[in-house]
DNA sequence: GTCTATACGGAGATAGAC
DNA sequence: GTCTATCTCCGTATAGAC
């Protein structure tokens, strides 16, 4: 019968995914080696074949962990903000809260999806789940605001705006630019709440 | 005295940069090896150390070539469109013209700058020159439209919007999304021409 | 002398055997 | 958890072709 000595393996596995998550974000997936991860955790290279059988296996676990944490983040936003517009502001605010990381390493979701898309990596679909998580959640908020017809387009639009801000801020390393664009996005959200929006007109006339 | 037998070396060098340019775009810089480039050109691997002394050397030549072609592109836009608003539409139209490539490999400028930024590669600054080229040109158009005070902010904003569209379209591989966002951008440009813009207000109140 | 091709060595990465 | 095998890649050294 199994003893109670199993938490160790889960702990080590968690440490590996955690370290890999951070390194994948800071250096990119392709430029992070087993040695990097092993060194960060403090175990030997061969050791974590007990936990993961390939690099892609680690990637899958990392993405799964990010999906989990993103779901928790979205739930936290729902808990701390009651109205749809407030929740949408939580999303935009994220750009300011994570500004130092964005300037240094870009958006965690965008840079990962971008890299995997360029490599035509099988895990792209899984990573896109992160984008879809935000997309669906944003869509729900726009629906709750009464923008049912254009909710999905608005969600994608906002998602792309945030991605663009992160991408340019990352390349140019400009803090001021992030602040200015967040201001723009907040104003845009307010305009959306007031409703007579450009996207509504665009969608209606198509 | 040198004979007229020198065009060969320039031709080979051009072939290498051309092939490297394409492969860097399709596969990313980090995931393209010398063997890939050599194979594409049809020469042996050791051979092009006569032309470039390192991989970073090739990267520098590729970026230089892209800068050159970007300048030519901007000049062509100026030639084919006389008014600032028409020229800005040229920029937005680029998203539609290059749509298949964007869906498959992302924006050439954005994906390169993103990769180099993540690697903290010395060539990032040079690659950012591509962004700056667009930024300055766009700024000039907004200035010519009479939006002098906010011209640079508007230029960066438009640049980021385009980057966001390309990034999301690349990850999700969605053609419809590009079309919808281009429509939005065209509407936004029209609104900018009419002037009373959100960015003007935002900038004034900061 | 200039360009090109083959061969070789060092480094590092993945994968796996023990 | 150590140790090794195999592979790829960068860079060089060397030698042949025009």
Write the layout of secondary structure elements.
The structure is a homodimer of 206-residue chains.
Chain A: H1 7-27, H2 34-41, H3 55-80, H4 84-97, H5 99-105, H6 108-119, H7 124-144, H8 151-172, H9 175-194, H10 198-204
Chain B binds a DNA duplex (18 and 18 nucleotides) through helix 1.
**Gyration radius from CA atoms of chain A, angstroms:** 20 Å
Average of the residue pLDDT scores of chain A = 91
The number of helical elements of chain A comes to: 10
State the separation between the terminal residues of chain A, measured CA to CA.
Answer: 66 Å
Q: Segments of chain A where pLDDT lies below 50 for 5+ residues?
A: 1-5, 200-206
Provide the CATH top-level class of the largest domain in chain A. Mainly Alpha
Oligomer designation: homodimer
Strand content of chain A: under 5%
Total strands of chain A: the figure is 0
Structural domains of chain A: how many: 2
Question: Could you characterize what this model shows?
Answer:
The first copy, chain A, has helices spanning 7-27, 34-41, 55-80, 84-97, 99-105, 108-119, 124-144, 151-172, 175-194, 198-204. By secondary structure, chain A is mainly alpha-helical. Chain A has two domains: 1-53, Homeodomain-like (Arc Repressor Mutant, subunit A); 64-205, Tetracycline Repressor, domain 2. The longest helix of chain A has 26 residues, at 55-80. The termini of chain A are far apart. Residues 1-5 and 200-206 of chain A have low confidence and may be disordered. At the A-B interface, helix 6, helix 7, helix 8, helix 9 and helix 10 of A face helix 6, helix 7, helix 8, helix 9 and helix 10 of B.
């Amino acid at each position: 019968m199994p003893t109670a000595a199993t938490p160790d393996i889960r702990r080590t596995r968690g440490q590996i995914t955690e370290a890999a998550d951070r390194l994948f974000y800071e250096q990119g997936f392709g430029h992070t080696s087993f040695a990097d991860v092993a060194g960060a955790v403090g175990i030997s290279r061969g050791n974590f074949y007990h936990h993961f059988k390939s690099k892609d296996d680690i990637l899958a676990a990392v993405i799964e962990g990010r999906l989990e944490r993103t779901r928790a983040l979205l739930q936290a936003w729902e808990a701390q903000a009651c109205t749809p517009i407030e929740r949408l502001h939580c999303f935009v605010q994220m750009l300011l809260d994570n500004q130092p990381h964005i300037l240094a390493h870009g958006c965690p979701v965008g840079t990962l999806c971008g890299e995997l898309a360029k490599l035509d990596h099988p895990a792209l679909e899984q990573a896109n789940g992160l984008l879809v998580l935000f997309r669906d959640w944003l869509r729900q908020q726009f629906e709750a605001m009464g923008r049912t017809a254009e909710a999905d387009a608005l969600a994608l639009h906002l998602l792309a705006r945030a991605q663009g801000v992160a991408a340019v801020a990352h390349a140019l390393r400009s803090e001021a630019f992030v602040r200015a664009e967040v201001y723009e996005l907040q104003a845009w959200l307010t305009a959306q709440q007031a409703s007579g929006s450009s996207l509504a007109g665009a969608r209606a006339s198509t």
